[in-house]
Predict the 3D structure of the following.
Amino acid sequence: MKFVFSFVIVTLLQIQLFPAEVSDSLAQVNRANEIRNLFKQKSFFDKALSVPGKVLFFPFDILFSGISYGIYKVDESKVIPKTRDFLISEDGRREVRPTYVSRIGVGLKYYQREILNPGSRLLLLATVGLHQRQRYGIALERVSLSELFYHSNYRALYEKLTTESFFGIGPNTEKNAKSDYTREMFGADISLGIDLGQRFTLQARAGFELNNILPGRDNDNPSITDIYNRSDLPGLDTQANLFTFSLGFYYGSLNRPAKPSRGYELNAVGQYFQQVNADDFYFLKLSGDFRYYIPLFYERVLMIRFGTELTEPLPGKEVPFYYLSELGEGISFRGFERGRFRDFDSVLGSLEYRYPISNKLESILFVDAGQVSADIFNAYNSSNWEFSIGTGVRYVTKGGSVSKIELARSRDGFLVKITLN
Amino acid sequence: MASWCEGMIKFGLSLFWSGGLLALITTTSCGQQKNLLVTYPALVDTLNVPPPKPIKIHAYSEYFDKQVTLQVEEALDFSRQVQNLTHSRSEAKNVDSFEQVANSSWFTNRNGTRRMSPAQIRHGPNAGEGPDTAHAWTITRAKMEGVTPGFSIRDYQGDNYVIKFDPLGYPELASGAEVVSTKLFYAMGYNTPENYIVYFDPKKLQLGEKVSFTDKKGRKRYMNPQDLKELLERIEKLPDGRIRALASKYLDGKPIGPFKYKGIRKDDLNDFIPHEDRRELRGLRIFAAWLNHFDTKDGNSLDMYVTENEKSFVRHYLIDFGATLGSASKGPNFLWRGYQYDVDPGVILSNIFTLGLYVRPWEKQPGVIYPSIGIFESKIFDPMAYKPQVPNPAFQSMTLSDGFWAAKIVMSFSDEQLEAIIEEGQYSNPLVESYLLQTLKERRDKIGRHFFSRLSPLDEFGLQHESDGLLRLEFKDLAMSSNLDSGAAKYRYEVIPLAHTDLHFEEGEVIGDTLIYLQNTLTSGFSSGFKGGDSAPIPKLCVRINKWAYDQNKWMKPVLIFINYQSESNKFEIIGIRRES
């Protein structure tokens, strides 16, 4: 039957659709359509099977066509390079760059490079977010004091963080004890750095800061000021004007900064704080962060991290609660909210296995463990360890910036964190 | 029911039609009437037609369409999914009864049907000697965007060329790859531009009047001498100050934008067959795999509206071969290119769930051995594992028969031809030439081995009437002739009358020979049984030949040779073949 059908079609085509020369355009169109229909023929079985898929695809088709058209228009209009051109000066020295900081919100950064010497830059920053969170800053960075290896930084910063979380002090705090507060801070500092080669940097910093704790603005939680008073929580209802001095060094041997597969890095800082508008707060902080990258095989990497922060008040003095050592997402204890655990000392250990899943994507599996303690050496309690496990995906751009999404499970439940570098 | 379904899916009619109508062939599977095979008419597509409207394809929107839209559409096409699951994808629609592709505005049979001479293969598509480097070049257009700059020039002869450069630190990489691949794609049968390697003195460059270009900041403006200076600073110079570059001659005719690998260009009245159903575009997957041409996007094709012999029609070109062999144009190829799409959900998911414990073969590649080659190897190469940068609908439609067709062409390239083509790449290091030759040979042989072991490698059938009344059926074993198989090959044949079932079947085996003698009694029985006068050539006889596969220890699937009897001339003639898969 099919043979007969095909034979008839072909014979018709032979007779009617293939004159030696087709000159009439309408005839050409008809001929083309007739032949195209022949090539489009599908069996009833194929047609019937295709129908549900076509119906399902219809909304996607509209959506994707819209996106594709949008991409086309953006590309056609050259809006991206034109915007970049608008934001970057002709000589590339001045630049305005949009920025996003998860703790604050969105804003703009303005750079003026090589302002005093090659490598130096002026930075202006303004970011705002929900609940009137805001940060403004000005910095003069990498100003050379010597042609060899000294450089200095000068910074001033004002920030108002209106929904900072507080769960209490000590290792056994609970998730449902959450309250919040506003921390208003103005600080200025000067730092002096010495680059001893590409791997080793020393830095000394001296500064001054004013801290105020105000009621929190998150309506879902009680404000810290409604629950605690100054005697419970040093630093509350007190403006703390602090002089700070710190000394730190960084040593790194990473084979590549954004996606290291080999080497290690160590960051250690010692800080001294002294209240200048009263005599309550005198304390030292010592923090260290060590990361070791072990190449396993073919870009599979194991990262081992150990971090600690020790806070020690001078005899008879106190530490403002917001300067206690913290564990939580911001400090990279994944699976717990920022500021979830707070005490004088904290330790954190992390194992992270990274493996490539695509050309620019890598997946991670991790285990984090940490604890806070009033005195990690003398009051260490092994039952205070908190754990989380999780997975995630990292995207590393050509420029080296890293964006990632992580899903962690802890005793507080699941927590997803998105980081845009 | 099953046979009915199979019949439905494989239903068909063989037609051979060229320049209107040449022949009509009805073929049925030997001994089984269920498989009625249809091939569509090969149409003349160079008739005089009005000019189609030029189109533009934007790289990013094409990327989205191929990477997302096409994948979702295919996933929801249940008919296609069933075909994939049952290995019954529809065959290409521009194949004749000998499983070949007729010459068209897309493709011209060249080395695959008749081996080109060394001079022809070296010459490739070139009609001249390239741009005149003795006199000044006038820059007419320029491109500052991207990592590799480029411009267009008009030479002293008035010819226009696009000039492209090798990436810094990788001399000869892109230009060598482009010329070698151009010659190969041309010899395969595709339309390609004339691409030349040139050495020129940058001092002979003149900036034309009002050379408009889009600078790296996206602004359209006229080029100035400072721009030219900056552009030349980003280009590698030879010790004598000259620059090696690739000069691609402007194609004849009016450019009307790229062709798409799916659908048709509706306003081209010569464009009838959905492009994903064209064998030369499906089979391009195998050629692309051979040469690691991962950038087979629509944008790397070009349709030209040409006028030849007082007829105007669209000719379809493949262009831009700078990202082939081991080159990615802007530098050496990435290890993963050619093995997975840029965004490959299947690979990503399987990598996630295997926790990275499975190391993919491409990850074990050694990396760049020669800067002029980039990343190009043959040890882990698997022709069927090849994937372009973004999914290609024609490649996704490829069947085993399409692949076999392409493999035959790939295998048609001799070592000497490859050597001649590589010499055209003008590599300064002889070790580079020998590495490239060895790699191409090994990849070629892997392609041949893959397809010649899955479909019968018997081809080039000829029928001779012997003086004693015997019919001599000659054929070529492609696996043997290309040294992929050695030793004494064994074949089994059956001769089956299709119409006169009262005639007896003839069977036999041949060892170490590619000749079959059909018995006199059978043929004489046939000639007396037919009166002739049929308007269309209907096969009267089918010869079914299997090859013994020593490595698989079984008979391979057969090739069927359909033979017609012409009563007027009292002659038998082969009117079609079909390889069973």
In short: The longest strand of chain A covers residues 179-196. Residues 44-77 of chain A form the longest helix (34 residues).
